[in-house]
Amino acid sequence: MISTSVLNRKIIIERESTSTNSVGTPIETYVTYKNKYANVYVSGGSTEFTESGALPNTNIDFTIRYDEDINYKCRIKYNNQYYKILHIEEMGRKLAQKIRTIVFEE
Description:
Blueprint: E1 9-20, E2 26-50, E3 53-65, E4 74-78, E5 81-91, E6 96-103
Antiparallel strand pairs: 1-2, 1-4, 2-3, 3-6, 4-5, 5-6
């Protein structure tokens, strides 16, 4: 069982949604889906050097209580930064999920 004292960081799960603009063109957006408490672990990082400059990458693992509705069409907002979901791992028998993410660049 996951101790609730470990899940002490508030995160927001946002889900991809399609809407239309004034001329009927589909627009991909994200809407707030769920608020969760999580354990946050910085698992690594790197810097990619491109023609436009250095791009830092941060990998973060979020551990939350199991939620079957969270999938790869979601993203996580934590400390005003967005994270793209790379991998979702079930822990135990649907007790928790470890969500591997990378900083989301739009």
